[in-house]
Amino acid sequence: MRILRTCGPSPPDDQRLDAYQITYTAERPLYYRAKLPDEFKVKTSKDKKSIEVKLVKSRYENYIFELSNGYVRDFPYIQVGTSLSARDIFGPLAKKYQLISRQPLPPDARRIMQSLKGRPAAEQVAEIMRYLHQRYRYLGDWRARNRSYVPFDLAQIEQNGYGDCKDLSILLTAMLREAGVTARPALVERGLYAMPMAIPGVTANHAIVQANIAGKIEWLDPTQTNYAPGYVASDLQDRAALVFTPEGNVIVDAIPASTPRQVERFERNEIFTAQGRSIVHERQVRMKGGGLASLFQGESEHGVKSIDTSLCNAVVNENTRCRVERDPMQYQLPDAYQVIIHAEDRHALMRIADSRYLYLGSPYPTVWDDLNRYRSEGGLTDIYLGEPRKQLRQINLVGEGITAAINACRLRSKWFDIDIAGEKTARGYRYSKQITVKTSWIGHDETMQPAFQTLLTRASDCYDRLNFIVNAP
User: Fold this and answer.
1) What predicted TM-score, i.e. pTM, was given to this entire model?
2) I need a labelling partner for 303 at 20 to 30 A (CA). Which of 101, 251, 328, 344 fits?
3) Could you tell me the domains of the chain?
4) How high does pLDDT run on average in the chain?
């Protein structure tokens, strides 16, 4: 394969091509699939054993004032191969995978499998994943230049004590089959966005395992820092996968995108005290998903204290005292994870006069401000929103002089759903805000639609009402 821009979505930058020419040759006929603008011309020889790509006109592109979550997904590329059939391209490799996966389990892996006999399939899978995480270092060994996509033998993997994605995936496959679980190695392109598989496998950069666990298909990645039954990491969702069957065949399957579900529910009680300060008690519940996985991965990389500090700083503007209550994190993600935060905020309210303060329930800039700026400044990239999800915030404010008057807001669109409501209470004010992110990507063309501008205008108005005056006594 050859591409004329970085594989996968890339951060916006400038690129100028004044000359470009490349020729592909092979002993067998070549096939290609391409997405090229008019500046490029492709010429194929009569015997199809040579393909020439040539730039016939200078090409220049530049991106400025783009959002930090803006990426270039629409770029020129050409994919070249000796066949358009996944079986033709990867059939020999699939047979090698099957030969390795059928090798006898090495001693330590066999010991683990004997200890798991008789347990339900889901429990065995979880323990096998935990074992690989604790026993093996995720590390590639490329000293043998002819390895390419071929894993080490099972005994060699155990002897090394490390392996890259293909090594750990083939060992996982063998152990799952020993447990009676149908398991098949698979090749995918890992990243925020996967290119179209125009020619099977040319963009594959990662190996995982497809497993049928109690009648349900799951995609297992033994290189991840955590395991969540039934959940696929966001950088593996919504893409094609090349699956190697036990018979040595290759099939093209699809890893689905996740659907929006409740992944965060935060309940906050905030008591306003003197001089714009407050006491905060917040209960956070994160359900299984990308947010919880990122929290666990962050702790494994930076430590408990660092994550606790980050949690505190996200809850208050100026932290003086903060205490975090939460269970120790484990390799396997729970269905729900609770964090309780007690904090004092020295700058909960912004003073605008002697006894008048501003409460910012929606600090600037909001996502709507960012998207409005993107439109007004001529942004060109596609916007990445993360995996589809629902986030609920329930806030109870206690204090005198709260002038809030939040009108009910209910917006529906193909990109976001927004629900906001508020009411006065005997001691202050209470409001709730739920946002549903319904897609991972918003294409540039979509952001130019009148319906999208209408959404931004209405959403901005709804969020502005979350900022109001507090008249302190």
Assistant:
1) 0.91
2) 344
3) 2-81 (no CATH), 86-255 (3.10.620.30), 262-471 (no CATH)
4) 92
